[in-house]
Design brief:
Strands 1-2-4-3-5-6-7-8 form an eight-stranded mixed sheet, with helices on both faces. The protein has helices at 5-14, 56-59, 84-97, 110-121, 155-170, 179-189, 196-200, 204-211, 231-241, 257-260, 262-280, and strands at 17-23, 26-33, 38-42, 64-69, 103-108, 126-132, 215-221, 247-250. The protein has 288 residues and is α/β, with parallel strands linked by helices. It is globular and about 50 Å long. A hairpin with a 2-residue loop joins β1 and β2.
């Protein structure tokens, strides 16, 4: 008998450690796996660390993963001035979790905006940001109509609303919207308290990248609903900002690319990090 979705998540959590770091609004809940160089994985809007649930087992064989619920999400405390206070709180936490180490970040969607602000605030030396289905680039996107799920008391109706929203925004192939995907999405969205969507439309990541010299790479799903049919504009912008930066497109995948195509995504992320590391070593933040 296969494990339930909740049991599968518990097993993945149990393979790592849970750590909390304080900030003005409470505490940040971090999930940590592996050893070696720190790789911070930042979830997207209306998400939690579970946005990376299908990636941590493999990636932790190569890096020490530090995966938070960002302030205003999941099990962490509140955010009063998102996204700037979120970035500051995470930066203070990383000072404790990875002292005297340069940081590699992968930010998914809204998480890429926060990652850019962490680099710009410079509380910790950020070596590299990998932008995964990134927001905050001030580039065109088509409008999306989302189903309402808040306040829906009937479990079946709420599940169907989540299924519809996953199909609209997150996952390209509807056959991949299984019980586990709905469970993860329901658990994450139900604990999100930050209205991240309007923030994601501001040019915060674009401005942060222009104001820093952090090494960057990009990974998008081929059918990312937040980028299609303007995916080339994402590539062009990142490569104007950092000529020669790697940009990977995962075939037959949507916005939540690391969940929909985990094996292909993990391989692409490791390849991007290897490609940017020589460039990152010239960055003044490089220490180890």
């Amino acid at each position: 008998m296969s494990p339930s979705s909740a049991e599968l998540v518990r097993r993945i959590e149990a393979a790592g450690q849970r750590v909390r770091t304080p900030y003005e609004g409470g505490e940040i809940a971090w999930h940590c796996w592996g050893e070696g160089r720190p790789l911070v994985l930042l979830h997207g809007g209306y998400g939690s660390w579970l946005h990376w649930v299908r990636n941590v087992a493999e990636l932790s064989q190569h890096y020490r993963l530090l995966v938070p619920d960002m302030p205003g999400f999941g099990e962490s405390g509140e955010s009063t001035n998102p996204p700037h206070d979120i970035a500051e709180a995470l930066g203070r936490g990383l000072q404790k979790l990875a002292p005297d180490q340069s940081i590699v970040l992968a930010g998914f969607s809204f998480g890429s905006v926060v990652g850019g602000l962490i680099a710009r605030q410079a509380l910790v030396p950020v070596e590299t940001i990998v932008i995964v289905g990134g927001a905050g680039l001030d580039l065109p996107r088509k409008p999306l109509q989302m189903a309402k799920w808040r306040g829906v008391a009937d479990d079946d109706a709420r599940r169907e609303a989540h299924r519809a929203n996953l199909a609209t925004l997150m996952i390209h192939d509807p056959r991949r919207i299984d019980d586990f995907a709905i469970y993860v999405h329901d658990r994450s969205t139900g604990r999100a308290r930050v209205a991240s969507r309007p923030i994601s439309r501001l040019p915060l990541l674009r401005e942060a990248l222009a104001a820093t010299d952090v090494a960057i790479g990009g990974i998008w799903g081929e059918h990312d609903a937040t980028a299609e049919p303007y995916l080339d504009r994402r590539r062009d912008l990142l490569q104007r900002l950092r000529p020669g930066s790697p940009f990977e497109v995962i075939a037959d995948a949507g916005h939540w690319v690391q969940f929909e195509a985990p094996k292909h995504f993990n391989t692409a992320l490791l390849r991007v990090l290897d490609a940017v590391r020589p460039r990152a070593k010239t960055h003044p933040a490089w220490t180890k």
